[in-house]
Amino acid sequence: MKARIIAAVVLAAALATVASTATGSTKRASAQQVVVWVMTDAQNGWPGAIAAANAQFQQQHPGVDVNIQYQSWDTVLQKFDAALAANDAPDVIELGNSQTVKYMAAGAFSSLKAKNFPNSSTWLSGLKASCTYRGKLYCVPYYAGARAVIYRKDMYRQAGVKSVPKTYAQFLAANKKLKKKFGKNRNFSAFYEPGQNWYVATTFVEDWGGHIAVQEKNGKWKGTLDSPQAVKALTIFKSMVRKYSRASKTQDEAHPFPSIPFAKGRMASFIGNGWEWPYVFNPKGGAAPKSFEKKMGAYPMPSHIKGQYMPTFLGGSDLGIPISAKNKQLGADWIKAFTGTQSETLIAKAGNIANSTKLANVNAHNPSLAPFAKAAKYSWFVPMSPNWTNVENSHLLKQMLTAILTNRKSVQAATKSASKQITQILNASQ
Amino acid sequence: MSSRFSGSAAAVTETALPARRLRRSLGSRLASGAAPYLLILPACAVIGAVLGYPLFFMGRLSLQHYGLFQLIRHKGEWIGTRNYSHILHDGLFWHVVFRTLAFTAAAVSLTMVAGTLFALLLAQLGSKMRLLLTAGLIFVWAMPVVVAVAVWSWMTDFEFGVGNWLLTELHIGNFNHHDWFANTWSGWAIITLLVVWGAIPFVALMVYAGLTQVPQELVEAATSDGANPWQVFRDVTLPLLKPIFVILTSLSIIWDFQVFNQIWILLSGQPPPQYFTMSIYAFTTSFQQSEYGLGSAIALVMVAILLVVSFVYIRQMVKIGDAE
């Protein structure tokens, strides 16, 4: 009967095995290999840039293999933690610019010299800041992305919307017309906004002068989503979403990617990243025929303040070299190849903002992508605290939005409890 | 019938060994005395390596502050039992414990009742229908959890789900864009349904195997004494199959208590706190908040609770083993 007791322990201790088997092992056949973890976005969106970087790298290091291991945003940090614990970290890793602070503060990256990397004097200041901790550089800017409204020109025309909205009032008026014209289709959203897309909700908060959190004079953080400005913004956001969006209120913008229902004609518009434009045609995304592009347009989300756009989240990615990487020099050389002008131009053409202001005009004459660059004129970023990633990972902003949009809690009550939690997480000791 | 269980087999060997030992000389007694321990050594070594060490490591981790900073330096910071006192004062933790226990109770009872009903159905069916039903049950059982959950998550999908479409087409109501997980009760109903659905085949087939071993003359005798089917089941079948039910129930408790994949995948890897079970709470604390010490403490408390819950059943099994 001991066997049964043991069985009980075996199964109950499954967590122990989760902990010990979840390690993404990076196989290393020989030293003549550089292991690179980048997100699947590159695999789907700009494989050409990877190929160009690999070719350039191998010219410099003949005989060295480049082992690209594509990662997904959902699990990369888990795997990275496990790899750090197992002393099996990759030589290069891509992290989101809101995730880097936690890892820089914990000493996960080797420090770098900016002058060793191409175009470093013209790096986007926002990305460079996300790679700098206590005056030292720990990663290299990779690319940034801005969000804009992607819309159906033909639907806007049919609904009688003559020109793209220039103010928030015009945006609401356009949606009203669209809903009247197409709303009988029960799957149709005039403006499709997945309830847990907190990037868009925070865009409203920032436009009305609120912030997620502010740092006080004594260095302590304070969650401020319950400030009058933020509450006002979220109330306006809630009424707009409940009126014009039929997207799920319990899912985020990756489940499904809005480009999929967009390609199926289920909406007139959504707020998307630059790369979501080509994703409408990607077989893994909307899989729309190329002819569909004629019906598509984009414009920066207009602010409630005349003549401005709503500030967009300046999301982006950086490339770092883990402190325990085996081939740091090879890693640095691969980053140099990948963030050089040639690769960055290809990355920008895929709908992104390149890491250097030198390449700001790559998409200037591309009518579909130019609005995204314009939108980046006004931007916001998450609180620069080493604990910010823990706020993101706890999904509390998403859950706050679900509670607000489903009327489970009032805006005041939901923001109050979220702010309390944010304050607590941001001020936790390391 | 119960000879299939190692419990009774072990009981038999235990009583047989000493009798034989007495008849031997001292030398061979020492040799044969060591033999059983030698034979069990490899098993103990394997269990120690794959189970003992991780448990020991987890226990050590649970007494440390072990965040990202400590992880990179491979050196935790000893803080005694602070992780445990943190848990005990954490309101969310107690909610999660209670929810996990309630879910386990619901899922296990549903599984056992539905599984037994399926077994009784199997016993009544003709050979062709029985084959068909058995095949269906085996397919469900053979389906990897991840695949099964992916199928269910598509069926209940908000935007494109076939479930909402079907319910609307059948005029049961307007389920267009119905969000099954917006309401915690309906969300948990889907999760319970999925877990029970996946667990029924095992229970049904095991109980059916047991049913085929119930001596027919006992059933006939009871029937001719005027017992109705329910009385036959209660007074003849149930007592005979008790060992099977005890084992199935304890296994179900162990499985359902630590359900993880179903909830994790259905809710896209970011379940909100009202969908936390203990295993999810331990996982998110460790891997999303980088609080590995705290996460280990939660996991160990979970192991302890599971041991207490299943102790009653394990003792029952030991008793059954001793009695035979």
What's the arrangement of secondary structure elements?
The complex is a heterodimer of chains A (430) and B (324).
Chain A: H1 2-12, H2 14-21, E1 33-39, H3 40-45, H4 47-60, E2 65-71, H5 76-85, E3 92-96, H6 100-105, H7 125-130, E4 132-133, E5 136-137, E6 139-145, E7 147-152, H8 153-158, H9 168-182, H10 198-207, E8 213-215, E9 221-223, H11 228-244, H12 259-263, E10 269-273, H13 276-279, E11 296-299, E12 312-313, E13 315-320, H14 328-338, H15 341-349, E14 353-354, H16 370-375, E15 379-380, H17 388-393, H18 396-405, H19 411-426
Parallel strand pairs in A: 1-2, 1-3, 12-15
Antiparallel strand pairs in A: 3-13, 4-5, 6-13, 6-14, 7-10, 7-11, 8-9
Helix pairs in contact in A: 4-14, 4-15, 10-11, 18-19
Chain B: H1 6-22, H2 26-61, E1 64-65, H3 68-73, E2 77-78, H4 82-88, H5 91-124, H6 127-142, H7 145-155, H8 162-169, H9 184-211, H10 216-224, H11 229-240, H12 242-257, H13 261-266, H14 278-288, H15 292-323
Antiparallel strand pairs in B: 1-2
Helix pairs in contact in B: 1-15, 2-15, 4-15, 5-9, 5-12, 6-9, 9-12, 10-11, 12-15, 14-15
